[in-house]
Write a structure and sequence with these properties.
Layout (H helix, E strand, L loop, with lengths): L12 H11 L4 E3 L6 H5 L7 H6 L3 H9 L13 H11 L7 H14 L10 H11 L7 H7 L2 E8 L6 H9 L4 E6 L10 H15 L6 H17 L4 E6 L9 H12 L6 H22 L2 E6 L1 E2 L4 H7 L7 E2 L5 H13 L5 E6 L5 H7 L12 E3 L9 H14 L19 H19 L7 H19 L5
Parallel strand pairs: 1-2, 2-3, 3-4, 4-5, 5-8, 8-9
Antiparallel strand pairs: 6-7
Length: about 475
C-alpha cells in the first residue's frame, strides 16, 4: 500500500464514510491566502518543480537549515535542481514533522507520484513532475479548476492598485479571485522613512495628496470602496497583539503630523495611533458588511542576522508569548459599543491561548449572524494534525463547531490545496472516532451534514462572496 492511500489519516470505518461521502466532494473557498494575483492573471506556467513547490517556501527552508543545509540551497544562488535535491535529501529527516505528510500528499495529488521522496528518488520525481507541469491542468488557473476552488481571497495592500484583479475579473475565470484589504503598514509611525514612503504610495493609488490625518482616512475610504467594488468582502491584520489603547481624534492627528514631519512616534504613541486606526477599520468593515480577520501572536524576525541578510518572511518567525485576551476583549467591546462590530475571524498562534480565544468569541455573539465572531482554524505553526485537533476541541468545548467556517491555505504556493484535504481528513477522523466510541450519536446523516457545512457551506454563507 502506498503511503498516501484513500484512507490516509482515517482510523475508523465511520471516519472513512464521513470523509468520502461528505467532506471530499465539497468544493473549496480559500478565504485567506497569499497567492500572487499576478500569477493568476498571467495563468503562470511553472517551468519546474522548484518554481511551483520550493520558491519562497520558508517552511521548507527552516527544515533544511535545521538539517545542516547551507543557505545557498535555500535562498541563495544554487540552481533550481540543486535546491530541489537538497530538499529531497532533507525530507527523510522530517519524519513526524507535518512537512513529511504535506510533501507526499502534494506529490500524489498534483503529479500522481507515490514514491517516497529522498536523495535516491529525487531525480525520478524531478523528471516526472516537470513533465506533468507541461499540462495546462497545472498552470495557475488550471490548478484552481483541478481542485474545485470556487473562490480565492488574496492578501492585498491598499497602496497597491488592483489591476491584476481587474484583469482576472474580466477574463471569465470560473474561480472568483477577490482582494483582501490588509493595511498593516499604517501601524508603523515609529519608522517615518518607511511610513511616509508607504503613505505617499497610498496617496498615489487613491489619487489624492495625503498631508493630514483626515486625508489619510479619506484615502482609506476610497481604497476600501475600490476593493468592495471588485468583490472584496474581507480585511485582515497581522498583529503581534491587538491594539486597544485610548486615542482621540486630536491625539491621532498630532501623532500622524509628527510622523509625516519625519519624527518617529514613541512606543506609546505608536500603540495609540494603531489603536485609533484599528477602530476606524472596524467601522469601515461593519458599514459594508465585511468580515475582519485578526492574525495574532507571531514573534517575527527573531534573528537580526537573518533579517539584515535575507529580509522578512524567510523563515525566522515563531510563536510569540504576549498577553492577548485583555486587549482583544477591549477592542471588540469598543467596536460593539459603537455599533460597529463586523463579522470576525480571529486566529491564535499560541496554543496556550486557545481556550481564552474560544471563550472570548462567545462574549460578542449577538444573535444576528450565526457564528458572527469565529475562532479561526489552526494557523501557521498550528496548521497540522495535532494543533488542528486542539483548535477543534477548544472550539467545540466552548462554542459551536457546527458554525465553524473551516480551513484555508494561508499560503503563497499553488501547491497548497491539499491542506484542505488534510484538514478534512483530520476533522472526519476526530468525529468518526467519537461516533464509534459512543461519544457522538450514530447519526451519520446529521454529523455528515455538519461536515459538509464546515468544509464548504458555512464559508459560502458567512463571507457573502459572489460565487
Amino acid at each position: 500500500m502506498s503511503f498516501i492511500h484513500d484512507n490516509f489519516l482515517l482510523e475508523t470505518k465511520t471516519a472513512e464514510r464521513l470523509y468520502h461521502t461528505y467532506a471530499a466532494p465539497q468544493p473549496i473557498i480559500d478565504y485567506h491566502c497569499h497567492l500572487p494575483p499576478k500569477d493568476v492573471a498571467a495563468d503562470r506556467r511553472f517551468a519546474n518543480l522548484f518554481e511551483i513547490w520550493l520558491e519562497g517556501d520558508h517552511y521548507k527552508w527552516r527544515a533544511m537549515r535545521a538539517s545542516g543545509v547551507p543557505e545557498r540551497f535555500c535562498t541563495g544562488d544554487a540552481s533550481p535542481q540543486e535546491k530541489f535535491q537538497a530538499w529531497a535529501k532533507t525530507v527523510p529527516q522530517t519524519l513526524r514533522n507535518p512537512l513529511y505528510h504535506w510533501t507526499h500528499l502534494e506529490l500524489k495529488r498534483y503529479f500522481g507520484i507515490d514514491q517516497l521522496l529522498d536523495e535516491k528518488t529525487a531525480d525520478s520525481v524531478w523528471d516526472r513532475a516537470n513533465e506533468a507541469l507541461q499540462s495546462p491542468q497545472l498552470s495557475a488557473k488550471g490548478i484552481l479548476g483541478k481542485f474545485c476552488v470556487r473562490a480565492v481571497c488574496t492578501t492585498d495592500d491598499p497602496a497597491d492598485p488592483l489591476a491584476y484583479h481587474e484583469q482576472i475579473a474580466a477574463s471569465g475565470l470560473p474561480t472568483k479571485i477577490y482582494p483582501t484589504f490588509r493595511a498593516d503598514r499604517v501601524m508603523d509611525p515609529h519608522q517615518p522613512d518607511v511610513f511616509n514612503a508607504w503613505i505617499d504610495k497610498l496617496g498615489q493609488t487613491a489619487d489624492m495628496h495625503i498631508a493630514r490625518l483626515d486625508d489619510l482616512l479619506d484615502a482609506f475610504r476610497r481604497r476600501h470602496q475600490a476593493f468592495h467594488d471588485i468583490g472584496g468582502r474581507l480585511s485582515d491584520h497581522g498583529l503581534d497583539q491587538c491594539y486597544a489603547s485610548d486615542c482621540t481624534d486630536a491625539e491621532a492627528k498630532v501623532i500622524f503630523a509628527k510622523a509625516r514631519g519625519g519624527q518617529p512616534a514613541t512606543a506609546s504613541e505608536r500603540e495609540a495611533f494603531a489603536s485609533y486606526m484599528m477602530v476606524f477599520f472596524g467601522h469601515l468593515d461593519a458599514e459594508k458588511g465585511w468580515t475582519k480577520q485578526l492574525h495574532l501572536g507571531a514573534r517575527r524576525n527573531a534573528s537580526t542576522r537573518a533579517l539584515q541578510s535575507l529580509g522578512r518572511d524567510t523563515g525566522y518567525d515563531s510563536i510569540g508569548d504576549l498577553p492577548q485576551t485583555d486587549a482583544l476583549g477591549r477592542y471588540l467591546d469598543r467596536l460593539e459599543q459603537a455599533h460597529a462590530l463586523p463579522k470576525m475571524v480571529i486566529y491564535n498562534l499560541n496554543p496556550a491561548d486557545n481556550y481564552a480565544f474560544a471563550t472570548m468569541i462567545g462574549n460578542f455573539q449577538d444573535g444576528a449572524v450565526a457564528g458572527k465572531i469565529q475562532f479561526g482554524s489552526g494557523w501557521w505553526f498550528l496548521d497540522q494534525k495535532e494543533a488542528m485537533e486542539w483548535q477543534l476541541n477548544a472550539l467545540s468545548n466552548n462554542a459551536l463547531l457546527s458554525h465553524f467556517v473551516g480551513m484555508l491555505t494561508d499560503s503563497r504556493s499553488f501547491m497548497s490545496y491539499p491542506r484542505h484535504e488534510y484538514f478534512r481528513r483530520v476533522l472526519c477522523n476526530l468525529l468518526g472516532r467519537e461516533m464509534e466510541a459512543g461519544q457522538l450519536p450514530d447519526a451519520e446523516a446529521m454529523i455528515g451534514g455538519m461536515v459538509e457545512r464546515i468544509c464548504y457551506r458555512n464559508a459560502e454563507t458567512f463571507f457573502g462572496l459572489a460565487l
